[in-house]
Design brief:
homodimer; alpha+beta; 7 helices; about 20% strand
């Protein structure tokens, strides 16, 4: 029942937000989902239009719906719009032109630890321990965000931050991330200036049946 | 033009495949995409129905549409349907009941290396080198597959294989994976027997603006 109310509320918000959606109407949800996945692309130039707050919230709602090993949910998000700080935050390590031109930059962060009882002793007190699968969760989080970006007619570009120390250090310091939290990736988002096309990556030689 | 033909062909195939889609019709593509992301769930019990070949192809087509650092595309897929081999492949390391009950198990594999000229010397001969971001790509590949599974009314469960040596060893040996290829995760897929519900993971405290 709680889920039903949540989903109804979500759908209501989506209807409110979806005015920004430029794709042709799809007659079937599976068709719409597949077309969106196949249309996702890296977008590196943007118009000066800003992102409605309700749309940004849905982008982050999609990101947080990612699967998570042991349901640890290591993710956090720092949404940047103050371009005057970008030199301090990103230095020379990133494509600054792309960032400063975008309507917002989302720094997707991950806590690399988890505070829980030891796996081999669930009755023991909680202790801080490494989370061996946080990085797998974060790839799914980032992809969910990128797919929602595509769905709302926005464009984005996944730029890696982890595991590059020279990229992570200034971001972590400037944003004041906690000791166990790393900046996983940096995603500039805006309305596409146009030009980028999705790649056709289909390759049947990558598929094996019952044996490599 | 090539992309247009590709997308038209894809849409035609999707229309052909989408008869298996049980979700209520969505009036807007963004709504359909968001609802699908929010409805994705881990499904651990399945009916005896098999997966149409055209649907399985679209699941893998969605997986291969994932973003990839430096466009390396480290992914490969081993689709398993011969349950008589599951004991040999998975041993006691996984939820075998879930695997044997599913219509198919997709072992998502990753090459951890790339054969290219060195990054600092593009004119030099290609050499085999580590790919520092293969794991990030694979999280996105797996999520794309899971979202397509949800879109077609199927259910799946992401079960981690990498980085657990005891899980990877029998899978790698039984399937004959190349030396540089690891079994990243194992995904049983089938039509849901019912019962599983999506989690509401929305948590506004995970969002920060311009500073942690």
């Amino acid at each position: 029942m709680k889920k039903t109310i949540f989903l109804l509320a979500t759908v209501a918000m989506l209807v409110a937000c979806s005015q920004t959606e430029p794709q042709p109407a799809a007659s079937d949800p599976a068709e719409a989902v597949m077309a969106n996945i196949l249309n996702r692309k890296s977008v590196r130039s943007y118009t000066s239009d800003t992102i409605p707050a309700a749309v940004m919230e849905n982008l982050l709602r999609a990101a947080m719906a990612a699967p998570s090993g042991r349901d640890i949910r290591p993710w956090s998000f720092v949404v940047l719009t103050d371009t005057t700080r970008y030199d301090e935050i990103f230095g020379d390590n990133f494509n600054m032109r792309m960032y400063k031109q975008s309507a917002a930059v989302v720094v997707i962060c991950a806590d690399t630890t988890v505070v829980r009882p030891p796996r081999d002793n669930p009755d023991a007190p909680a202790v801080q321990q490494p989370n061996g699968t946080w990085r797998d969760d974060m790839g799914a989080v980032t992809e969910n965000l990128l797919l929602a970006v595509e769905a709302y007619g926005l464009g984005a570009c996944w730029t890696a931050c982890y595991p590059y120390v020279d990229r992570m250090a200034p971001v972590k310091k400037a944003l004041g991330l906690p000791a166990t939290v790393v900046p996983y990736c940096v995603v500039p988002i805006g309305y596409p200036a146009g030009g980028e096309q999705p790649k056709d990556k289909w390759d049947s030689s990558r598929i094996h049946y019952n044996q490599w």
